[in-house]
Design goal:
β8 (146-155), α6 and β9 form a beta-alpha-beta unit. A 7-stranded mixed beta sheet has the order 5-6-4-3-7-8-9, with helices on both faces. Strands 1-2 form a two-stranded antiparallel ribbon. By secondary structure, the protein is an alpha/beta fold. It has a single domain (52-176), classed as 3-Layer(aba) Sandwich (Rossmann fold), CATH 3.40.50.2020. The chain is built from 6 helices and 9 strands. 37% of the residues are buried.
Amino acid sequence: MAPDTLDRIRTTIRDVADFPQPGVLFKDITPVLADPALLAQAINGMIESTGITQVDKVVGIDARGFIFGALIAERLGAGFIPVRKKGKLPWQTRGIDYALEYGTNSVEMHLDAITPGETVLLADDLLATGGTAGAALHLIHEAGGKVLGSTFFIELSFLNGREKLAQHGPVHALITF
């Protein structure tokens, strides 16, 4: 991706101080999502950074990962699989609890979402500590999926989430802060 395009995407991301709690500088991606040209360039950049041209399934994480994951899946001619918060999927699921900085959370995926041996790309909006993405990758492996890599719109590198995910294949991020 051209450096000027990356710069345009980066400058369109809005910083929101003290959201969702005091001391947090939130990276608001909604201005990028609202611009069809920038959104298309972001999706293209996320795909190009992986080098992947063919995959069976793209897994997106609740909720903004659904936006990126579904668009990537469509571009790659792949199926889209949602990983959702516990209790939100309508059929039989497999789930995992994982640690957060303060407490725990749970995510689930349908039991029949991935057939053993299928190739999978994980896509999400943000890589922070790696907890949620790591949980999703665990579910993919548990289902027998072959992870080709992970792609994120934004990585907050100072939180070292990449280190937690490295064992699951290549990790790519379009924008790094």
